[in-house]
TrEMBL record:
GO molecular function per UniProt: ADP binding
Keywords on record: Coiled coil
PANTHER family: OS12G0206100 PROTEIN (PTHR36766:SF64), PLANT BROAD-SPECTRUM MILDEW RESISTANCE PROTEIN RPW8 (PTHR36766)
Coiled coil among keywords: yes
Name this polypeptide is given: NB-ARC domain-containing protein
Domain NB-ARC: 191-310
Alphabetized Pfam families for the sequence: NB-ARC
Coiled coil: 21-48
UniProt lineage: Eukaryota, Viridiplantae, Streptophyta, Embryophyta, Tracheophyta
């Protein structure tokens, strides 16, 4: 494009257009800096989406803002691609044979493009700021990867992602009529636990989400989803369960008060609790409060190792080995 600098016979518009694409021009430097800032904001937005995405089905306000943020990300990506496309077009144009109409069109595009970049930055900033505030209020970890698990497993995988038979089995277990346990006293009744076992990456969470959202489980009037941290924090999990049920921030810091508050919120409700990715037997501390929920409540567990679930006699297999295990 060096030859463009010397072609002024096409009119005064040409230098105006060229200065936005010339590597050495001040105008181009300003625009490139704006594009660079927009790209940096996209990285920040991507990290925020990763932080909040697995919580969107628990909190409606996160789901709504996440949708807005993804739209803003999409628009920002289109803006960056538009700049790159126009730049390639300018670089490949034979300006000696370019009609004035094309130059005029390019000039009009340049005039409005800077505002387009500013608008994209503004939208990203707005929705990122709103989403960060909500995530912080729910104490959602800044870096979800810090709870990542080892990717090795000595057991063979079972691929049940998207398979209807496993979903139907789970629904059949969770839809068991209350009459089946009506003869049990309150002290005898044990909340059923449905395990989903397998190595990482084969779809345990995806399957549990399908179960969680299945319309046939309408009898559960309260549903709770917990992404379990690798180091089980009973106090934090109790607080998250309360917040999931009440949709409000919980400020209790005492474990006994948290347990009492949770029992109060679920005592007259049929509860479906999902504990996603347990990594110890500490989750059993939740059996006490969950047994206070109404009859028909249940727990779904996802885990990589059967040893974390075999230590309880709450497992529900309907008289047969669960097809959700790795021993298919």
């Amino acid at each position: 494009m060096e030859h463009v600098k010397t072609i002024f016979g096409l009119g005064a518009q040409l230098p105006f257009v060229y200065q936005f694409f010339d590597e050495e021009s001040v105008q181009n430097s300003e625009l490139r800096n704006s594009i660079s800032r927009l790209e940096a904001k996209l990285i920040n937005a991507s990290q925020l989406i990763e932080r909040s995405e697995c919580w969107c089905f628990r909190y409606d306000n996160i789901q709504k803002l996440l949708s807005y943020l993804k739209n803003a990300v999409y628009e920002a990506e289109l803006t960056i691609e538009e700049f790159k496309s126009q730049r390639r077009r300018a670089e490949n144009t034979d300006w000696n044979n370019t009609a004035g109409e094309l130059i005029e069109n390019l000039k009009n595009w340049v005039t409005g493009f800077k505002e387009k970049v500013i608008s994209a930055q503004r939208n990203l900033d707005h929705f990122c700021d709103q989403l960060v505030k909500i995530c912080d209020s729910y104490e959602i970890p800044q870096n979800p990867k810090k709870f990542s698990r080892p990717i090795t497993d000595s057991r063979p995988p079972v691929v049940f992602f998207g398979r209807d038979n496993e979903l139907e089995y789970a629904i059949s277990v969770l839809e068991i009529p209350k009459s089946e346990s009506s003869s049990c006293t309150e002290s005898q009744r044990k909340i059923p636990v449905l395990p989903i076992v397998g190595m990482g990456g084969i779809g345990k969470t995806a399957l549990s989400q399908k179960i969680y959202h299945d319309e046939r489980l309408k009898s559960y009037n309260k549903k709770i989803w917990i992404c379990v941290p690798q180091k089980f924090d009973f106090e934090k999990v109790l607080k998250e369960m309360i917040q999931c049920v009440t949709k409000k921030e919980c400020n209790f810091t005492n474990v006994d008060l948290l347990r009492e508050e949770l029992i109060k919120e679920i005592k007259s409700s049929t509860v479906l609790l999902v504990l996603d990715d347990i990594w110890s037997t500490d989750w059993q501390q939740l059996l006490g409060p969950m047994n206070e929920a109404s009859e028909g409540s249940a727990i779904i567990l996802t885990t990589r190792d059967r040893e974390y679930i075999n230590c309880t006699d709450h497992l529900r297999t309907s008289g047969a080995e669960s097809p959700l295990s790795e021993e298919q």
